[in-house]
């Protein structure tokens, strides 16, 4: 089946699912066979376009339909996120850059939380579109600087806020913080704020980081363009690392924290398809000298 045929079937099927009465048309009466669902003329009217414009789209005869038209069609035909994605792929050849649902990426299915918490041997976690941790395993929690006598815990629910604004990350946990961490992470935040202007958490982060005397100048420097860290390797200290070969090179970063291991972490990132914008991370740590 070609993309053109797939587009025709998708749009016709979605039209058939909607009762015209639900969009304000009078219920049909009288004799004669009546097609189920909305007609092309009714969809066109709801879109405020000509019937020919919509008919050409449904037939696949519109060479490059605008994203505004496709989004309007998805809204009128009450498409789910996966259906809108299919609409873009059939009509344009690529997936939509931004989810239709403004809350997309703010949560994940409980099965993801269960899966992540049961991973052992490598730190892993899931964050939402604004870098709030949604799920994490024990290995991830133990990575962070630990205070003697206290149980391991996340230093903060929002990782972006912690990475860019907290002295603990700048001075103790993230090695070569300004170049290797702050510059790409700040660029990630700029991209996300631009892509999701209605996300209140991202807007708060934008203001906090911009106003910070240390991170602010880095954040306002637009020389670095960066979208995601998949495959990146950066230096850090791992507080939960336990040497298995008897070669213990852990030391103290300061008087306030327990021993930790310096090394390189490589970030493997993926996206839960049911929550576009959320990210799953598996962190591969290589200690120095190994």
TrEMBL record:
Pfam families documented for this protein: HTH_3, MLTR_LBD
CDD domains attached to this UniProt entry: HTH_XRE
HTH cro/C1-type domain span: 33-84
Protein name: Helix-turn-helix transcriptional regulator
Species this protein is from: Streptomyces lichenis
């Amino acid at each position: 089946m070609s993309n053109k045929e797939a587009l025709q079937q998708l749009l016709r099927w979605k039209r058939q699912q909607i009762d015209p009465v639900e969009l304000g048309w009078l219920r049909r009466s009288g004799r004669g066979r009546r097609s189920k669902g909305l007609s092309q003329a009714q969809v066109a009217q709801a879109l405020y376009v000509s019937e020919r414009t919509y008919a050409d789209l449904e037939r696949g005869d519109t060479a490059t339909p605008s994203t505004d038209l496709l989004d309007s069609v998805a809204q009128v035909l009450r498409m789910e996120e996966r259906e809108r994605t299919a609409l873009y792929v059939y009509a344009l050849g690529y997936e939509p850059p931004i989810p239709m649902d403004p809350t997309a990426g703010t949560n994940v299915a409980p099965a993801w939380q269960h899966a992540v918490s049961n991973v052992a041997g490598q730190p892993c976690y899931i964050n939402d579109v604004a870098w709030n941790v949604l799920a994490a395993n024990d290995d991830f929690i133990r990575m962070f600087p630990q205070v003697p006598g206290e149980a391991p815990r996340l230093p903060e629910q929002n990782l972006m806020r912690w990475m860019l604004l907290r002295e603990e990350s700048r001075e103790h946990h993230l090695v070569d913080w300004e170049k290797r961490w702050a510059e790409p992470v700040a660029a990630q935040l700029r991209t996300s704020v631009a892509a999701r202007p209605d996300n209140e958490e991202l807007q708060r982060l934008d203001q906090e980081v911009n106003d910070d005397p240390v991170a602010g100048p880095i954040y306002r420097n637009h020389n670095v363009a960066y979208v995601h860290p998949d495959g990146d390797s950066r230096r850090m200290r791992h507080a939960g690392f336990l040497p298995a070969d008897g070669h213990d090179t852990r030391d103290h970063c300061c008087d306030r924290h327990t021993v930790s291991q310096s090394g390189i972490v490589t970030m493997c990132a993926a996206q839960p398809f049911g929550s576009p914008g959320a990210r799953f991370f598996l962190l591969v740590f290589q200690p120095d000298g190994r």
